[in-house]
Design brief:
Blueprint (H helix, E strand, L loop, with lengths): L1 H13 L3 H20 L8 E6 L7 E9 L3 E10 L5 E8 L2 H5 L2 H18 L10 E7 L3 E5 L2 E4 L16 H11 L4 E7 L1 H12 L3 E7 L3 E8 L17 E5 L16 H9 L9 H4 L1 H17 L20 H8 L7 H10 L7 H32 L7 E6 L1 H5 L3 H13 L2 H5 E5 L3 H17 L3
Parallel strand pairs: 2-5, 5-8, 9-12, 12-13
Antiparallel strand pairs: 1-11, 2-3, 3-4, 6-7, 9-10, 10-11
Helix pairs in contact: 1-12, 2-12, 4-5, 6-16, 7-9, 9-10, 9-12, 12-14
Bound molecules: adenosine-5'-diphosphate (ADP).
């Protein structure tokens, strides 16, 4: 009986009703408008300086360079003007001393690796010409043009000195020039913008790119006359649209609308960035497992689960991985065999009974479905703001959470249907986007060159 009540309370707390989803969507649209009006708002709504659309007939060979994770990645991208792009890539490790040393050494290393990649792949560049490169630099950057920006701060364990406030493109270009490597850094690319472009090459009606991986964020195509804060808007630009990087993981810093539970508050308090990225902490792969763990601990402490016993493994922060949630969601066996394996073999519980496993599965489903429905609220906000739901359009989504979590895609679509009705199901197609920081960055370089040369 006590178990039943506790479970019902969790269901009530974690369920995003249709009405709440709509209220969040409305609040999200207000946040978008504020961010388009001025700098410093919760939704940063950063102009990407990427203008013009793709039609899938683009052709040429480009390079992409991607830094921001464990590895440095160099990609050559060949666009034939039809059909899927052909890519070759090499990954290079980034040693700790490069991450935390002198910035010049880090950028020299990047240029060297691009140089050796050109040799390896036997890529010839005609004398007097340069190959164009799209540079995905996944750190917070204040972008001032398609290939200019300033690093606001390092994240993810990088701290190379002398870089904050400086232009990463200038550093990289300088390193190429000093080495006589014939590469021009044509575009500085945010990964959501790259995701949108990579999807658009194969689905020209793409209106939005979303990342649901370690973090969450999205980019969409906005009309330039709505970007009120963009003072450099020139009358003579041919395009009337620009991609906006929303940085939507930051939504609801004010805690005005999101249904935060004590489990979310605990996670936020113990995170490296308390009071920021509130929506991201309810949606993204980095956090869902930890929220689930917080709920399970609470049930254990109340002696409603595992007979009040916890395993030493589950007692540690971050041990309940979001990937386990995917496996538990997918576990349709009558005895919850896969769930048992995770609890007993991976997390070292001595024994679990079926009721324990059913409760764990229910908690996982609550946390996972809430994440998908909050993602739907954000996407619905963009679709309503742009009136995009009224016509045929595609949304490209990248990231392991979206790729592997069962029913994340259908849960998002169901949320959109609650907001817009059944027509949205036929109008909007949601698909897995591939390689925003490779193909997408190359396409960004292509658009940059096209825009620079005039219409
Ligand atoms: P990134 O966003 O860093 O580029 P990914 O898209 O691979 O990389 O996302 C990594 C995140 O996805 C991690 O936080 C991890 O918890 C989560 N993840 C990895 N595998 C799965 C899975 N099978 N199901 C759900 N989430 C997963």
């Amino acid at each position: 009986e006590k178990q039943k009540n506790a479970v019902q309370a969790l269901i009530d707390e974690f369920t995003v009703s249709a009405d709440l989803l709509k209220a969040i969507k409305d609040n999200f649209i207000k946040g978008m408008n504020k961010g388009l009006e001025r700098d410093g708002e919760t939704l940063a709504m950063i102009p990407s300086h990427v203008m013009g659309r793709l039609d899938g007939t683009e052709s040429g060979s480009y390079l992409a360079l991607d830094i921001g994770g464990t590895n440095l990645r160099v990609v050559s991208v060949h666009l034939s003007g039809h059909g899927p792009p052909v890519t070759y890539q090499t990954k290079y490790p980034i040693e700790e001393r490069l991450k935390t040393g002198d910035a010049k050494a880090l950028f020299d290393y990047m240029a060297d690796k691009v140089g050796s990649f050109l040799d390896e792949q036997k890529i010839k560049v005609s004398p007097g010409t340069q190959i164009e490169l799209g540079f995905t630099f996944s750190f917070p950057v204040l972008q001032t043009s398609i290939n200019r920006g300033k690093l606001i701060k390092w994240t993810k364990g990088f701290s190379a000195s002398g870089m904050v406030g400086k232009d990463p493109v200038a550093y990289l270009q300088d390193a190429f020039t000093r080495r006589h490597i014939p590469v021009r850094v044509a575009a500085l690319v945010n990964d959501t913008v790259g995701t949108l472009l990579a999807h658009a090459y194969e689905h020209p009606d793409t209106a939005m790119g979303v990342i649901l991986g370690t973090g969450c964020n999205g980019a969409y195509i906005e009309r330039i006359n709505k970007i009120k804060k963009w003072k450099d808007a020139k009358e003579d630009v041919a395009a009337d649209e620009m991609i906006i990087n929303m940085e939507f993981g930051a939504f609801d810093k004010e805690r005005a609308i999101l249904p935060l539970t004590m489990f979310d508050n605990k996670l936020d308090r113990k995170s490296v960035n308390p009071n920021s990225q509130i929506l991201e902490k309810m949606i993204a792969g980095m956090y869902l497992g930890e929220i689930t763990r917080n709920v399970l601990l609470n049930l254990v402490d109340r002696r409603l689960l595992f007979q009040g016993q916890i395993s030493a493994d589950l007692n540690q922060m971050w041990t309940f991985e979001t990937a386990y949630m995917s496996a538990i969601e997918a576990d349709a066996s009558p005895t919850l065999h896969a769930t048992r394996k995770i609890l007993e073999s991976t997390l070292n519980f001595q024994s679990t009974d079926k009721v324990d496993r059913q409760i764990v599965k229910l908690v996982v489903e609550l946390v996972g479905r809430r994440a998908a429905r909050l993602s739907a609220a954000a996407i619905a906000g963009v679709l309503e703001h742009t009136e995009g739901w009224k016509k045929k359009a595609s949304i490209g989504i990248d990231g392991s959470l979206f790729e592997y979590y069962p029913s994340f895609d259908t849960d998002i679509m169901d949320g959109l249907v609650e907001v817009f009705g059944e027509t949205v199901r036929t109008n909007i197609s949601i698909g897995l986007a591939q390689d925003g920081s490779g193909v997408g960055a190359a396409l960004c370089a292509l658009l940059a060159a096209k825009h620079a040369n005039g219409p």
